[in-house]
Amino acid sequence: MTMKHNTIVFSIIVATGMLLIFGCHKSTCSKISVNENSIKAVILAKEYAVLTRWYNGDPMGFIENSWDDVTYFDPSLISRIDSINAFRKILEPIKGLIHIPSHKMDKTQVSIFGEIAILTFTDVFSAGNKTARWHATEIYLQRGNDWKLIHSHWTESKVQY
Amino acid sequence: MTMKHNTIVFSIIVATGMLLIFGCHKSTCSKISVNENSIKAVILAKEYAVLTRWYNGDPMGFIENSWDDVTYFDPSLISRIDSINAFRKILEPIKGLIHIPSHKMDKTQVSIFGEIAILTFTDVFSAGNKTARWHATEIYLQRGNDWKLIHSHWTESKVQY
Question: What is the β-pairing status of strands B66-73 and B81-82?
């Protein structure tokens, strides 16, 4: 190959790289969009599976779905839980205690920003003669090919109806 | 310049770009670390300023510190607040109502993942003869040169001491 040829080939490689990094052709954009939708589907499926286990007395789905450096808040805590070991410690005592036949993830929203996906929703279920509503902020982080929780925050709604 | 010269200059530009995108020289890494620390400082200062206004009867600091598509949870809500207009609507009625002389942001942690910064802490203050503790997850998103809230979640701790 000549120097001119080398320069042209090199320019094409760089231009393609720049296109991938800074912009996208219509077909590339569609691929990104399809990819975003598949990430959203994966995250919703993961959360649903964890909650199904939770309502059947098995809280450990949350541990399997969390990174080692996960942090966690709920109204029963005096301050933030830092690390998966501390998270495991508060979940173990409730093994086998919760049995709720059905629940609904209401108003789910997943927003993706690079390696972070923010899932928010309100989980709704019947508890005795009232309807309980728990607001959830589940922040998933991608490491390698997997998405797991890096932070989780749950709040019970005080609104009764 | 000759074609050879052009190619060399072009290669240096591309190599520098690749270094910035995919890796870093020791001095570059230090700059990234310094930059991360300055982002953390900016976010903590923003949150502290908003809370200082909040405890002095001015909740509108939250509006100025939020993007238009902010979402929000607290225990008083039946479901998630979507958009700054809906957020403004729930904050306006409490203008002038809250007067707390001092508070403390306890156990602050800021984690940065690209354009997302996750600030978590427990805000502690005296309310009558008890100590109130509110857990906060404040997710900041960078757009242009500014960082503002894209999602906010607050929970009152039930632990009394």
Answer: antiparallel
Dist CA A126 CA B17 (whole Å): 56
Task: Flag whether B112 is in a domain.
Answer: yes
Sign of CA dihedral A95, A138, B81, B36: positive
CA dist., res. B11 & res. A5, Å (int): 15
* Nearest CB partner across the interface for B116, out of A10, A113, A122: A113
Domain presence at residue B136: yes
* ipTM above threshold 0.95: no
pTM surpassing 0.90?
Answer: no
- Please tell me the total count of domains within chain A: 1
Instruction: List, for residues A74-98, the tens digit of each pLDDT value.
Output: 999 999 999 999 999 999 999 999 9
Domain that includes residue A55, residue range: 34-156
- Give residue A69's pLDDT: 98
Closest residue on chain A to B9 (Cα): A7
B121 in a structural domain: yes
Closest residue by Cα to residue B73 from A113, A134, A47 = A134
Residue A41 lies in a domain: yes
Q: What is the pLDDT of residues B132-150, one digit of tens each?
A: 999 999 999 999 999 999 9
Chain B residue numbers with beta carbons less than 8 Å from the beta carbon of A14 are 10, 14
CA–CA separation, A138 and B150 (whole Å): 14
Identify the residue whose tokens are 């009152």. Answer: B156
A157: closest CA of chain B, how far (Å): 4
Of A64, A65, A82, the residue nearest A73 (C-alpha) = A82
Domain CATH for A104: 3.10.450.50
Round to whole Å and give the CA distance between A38 and B89.
Answer: 35
